[in-house]
Structures are given as C-alpha cells and as structure tokens.
Amino acid sequence: MIRMKPALTAALIAILAVSCGGNGDSPGEQRRDRVDILGAGATFPAPLITAMADEYRDLTRNRVTVNYQSIGSGGGIRQFIEQTVMFGMSEAFLSDEVMNNVEQATGGRAFNMPITLADVVPTYNVPGVGSGLVFSGELLVEIFMGDITRWNHARISELNPDVDLPNLPLTVVHRSDGSGTTNVWTSYLSRVSDRWRERVGFATSVNWPTGIGGNGNEGVAGAVQNTTGAIGYNSFAYALLNNMSYGSVINAAGNIIEPSFEATTEAANIELPDDTRILFTNTPAEYGYPIAGFAWMLIYENLDANRAISNRREAKELINFLVWSITEGQELSELLGFARLPEAAVEKSIQMIRQLKWNGELIGQQVLDEQDLLSSVPRPENYL
C-alpha cells in the first residue's frame, strides 16, 4: 500500500475526523458514523478506483468506505440515471439527450468529471511474438472488419518487417457488453476510416463485423490469452497487470507510439471544453498515444436530487473523496498502470466541484474551502 507524506496525511485525517465526529467514539458509534459511498461503472478504471478506495479507507480510519461495482460503462450510466449509485464511472461522456433529461428531472446538470485517462491498446496472443508489433489505424480497421484473417498477411508484415509472423488464423475478440473501452476504440477507428464510421460507427456497443465477445476488460483479456492467434483491445492497465502482449500504434503525426503514461497524458494535452466532454482519439499531439480518452466520474449537480444519497453528510463525504481522487489520489496512478490526469483536466473538475449543491447550498465550494486549510502543508505538484 502506498503511503502519503506524513504531514499531509495527518492534516487530512484531522479534517476528515472533524467531519466524521472525532476519533474517540466507541466501536458502536464508529459504525453509526461510518459512511458508505457506492459507485458503479467502467471496468477499465476498476483497479485504480479499488486501490483509491483502500487507501482512502485507511486515511479516514475506516470512517469512509468506497464500494465500486465494475459492471461496464453502460451499466454505470444506467445506474447513475436510475439513481441507485452515488456516482457512475464511464469512458463515454453523457450524451446531450441524457444531460437534458437529467436537468429536467433534477433541476440541475449532470457533471462529467475526469478521474483518469483511458488508454486502449491492441492486445494479442501470437506464439513467439511479444509486445511491440506495430499497427496503423487502417490496419486495425482491416483486421476488425474481418478483411485480414491470418497473422502473416502482407499488410501486417509490411509494418513489421523484422518479425517472423506465423501462418496462423487470426481471431478478433471484442467486448460483448456496453463499454466505454469500446467507445474509445471505435471512436479511433471511426476517425481514421470513413468506411468504419459509415458501416459500424462508434458507441459503447456496436454491431461487430466479425469476432467473438468477452464481458468486460477481464473477459476480453481472458479470451485473448486463451485463444492462440487472438487479437483484442484492452486498457493499458489490464495489459500490464495480466502480462499481455500489446502493440504500438502509428499516430496522426506519423510517429510510432509505444503505449506509456507520458504518451497518454500527452494525448490529452489539448484545449478542453469546460464540461470536459471531448474525445481526443487520433490526437493531433505529435507524441501522443492515439487511442486514449478520459474516464469520467458522473455526478449530479444537485446532490440532494440523487435518491442514492440520503443526507448532507454522505454528499459531503462523496465530494471529499472526489477531491482527493483527482489530487493526492493520483499518486497511485502510474504504480497501477494508469496515466495521471493533466493539470488542465484537474482544473476543469475543480470548477465543476465548486458548483455541487445540497438543497441549494454550495457544498462543493465549502469542501474546497476546507481543503485550503492545508495550504501550509507541502503538496505534490498537481495538488491544487
């Protein structure tokens, strides 16, 4: 478990202890004072959210528990709309239609707040071939269209002249559930290919021209690993955690980009709209990894309008966790195979947090004002 700087940890505990009613309570009182924060959604950030939850539980001395259900972006959006969770997680931002429906139903907006960066890599299982195969966008389109069916095809060999590719059948693996990872992947294919955009398009779920399905990042990873000759797509984190072979991708600038934390953060180094609802696949950044996007936490502006949040204290603890996750919590990112949020994205999220309300009270601003009590404590570079 990663430990934070002692001074910062002590200061945060002091603030959180005050909000939780002190540290001298009996075990029964501690159970009554405990707050459970419930979220659900994308499988991609699940390892990071779980690690953040563990660290935050320790930080708050078991007063705040974050329970996250890894059910896919589609499920996270659905439960967010149905108000069965305090927050959703998705690699696909909410559509204008959903945003409008939320505003009509709750009298406030739905915020899409970046928590981490979603980088999606081609993963494969080719005997004798490790990580490093080079793919172009056009080549990936041909593979996932079903046009290329063997690994020694000339189009693959052209980009990998020094690799001895076997005469092996190629099996495409894709997600079978509604998935933000699929949204990022198909967004990229749509941006590099008119043919893909017109025939398949991009969304959290599409009608695949070929291949077999797997449920969640876990399902795709398992199918790729258990199928000789398979190619799929997974988050970079899942590829690293499962020791999978993954490829490099030629970006819009013509550079071969090996997936890395730096290349993913660089991809997001663009001008962001205030609501952060932007896809930056096929990024123009010269050294940016081209198949990447945000993973968003979905939050109601009017927290009291979310039936999953019972009282003001739960709303405040949710905001405390959100602020921590985009600042100090980012220290966990690279250790788990995730890229840190760029400063511009953190700033946009802070602006949204300022607008969070409980019965009209700007409770988000209050939490941020309390965080300013830490101004004398040394902070990491990205802590605002």
Give an overview of the whole structure.
- The strands form 2 sheets. Strands 1, 2, 3, 4, 6, 7, 8, 9 and 12 form a 9-stranded mixed beta sheet that branches.
- The chain has 384 residues and is of the alpha/beta class.
- The protein is built from 15 helices and 12 strands.
- Mean pLDDT is 88; it is low at 1-30 and 373-384.
- The protein starts with 5 loop residues before the first helix and ends in a 13-residue tail after the last helix.
- The radius of gyration is 22 Å and the shape is elongated.
- The protein has 2 domains: 6-116 and 295-374, D-Maltodextrin-Binding Protein, domain 2 (3-Layer(aba) Sandwich), CATH 3.40.190; 119-267, Periplasmic binding protein-like II (D-Maltodextrin-Binding Protein, domain 2).
Tell me briefly what this model is.
The chain is of the alpha/beta class. 49% of the residues are buried.
Task: Summarize the helices and strands and which ones pair or pack.
Blueprint: H1 6-20, H2 27-33, E1 35-41, H3 46-59, E2 64-70, H4 73-82, E3 87-90, H5 96-106, E4 110-124, E5 134-135, H6 137-145, H7 154-159, E6 171-175, H8 180-192, H9 194-199, E7 212-214, H10 216-226, E8 230-235, H11 236-241, E9 245-246, E10 248-250, E11 256-257, H12 261-267, E12 292-300, H13 312-326, H14 343-353, H15 363-371
Parallel strand pairs: 1-2, 1-3, 5-10, 6-7, 6-8
Antiparallel strand pairs: 3-12, 4-8, 4-9, 4-12, 10-11
Helix pairs in contact: 13-15
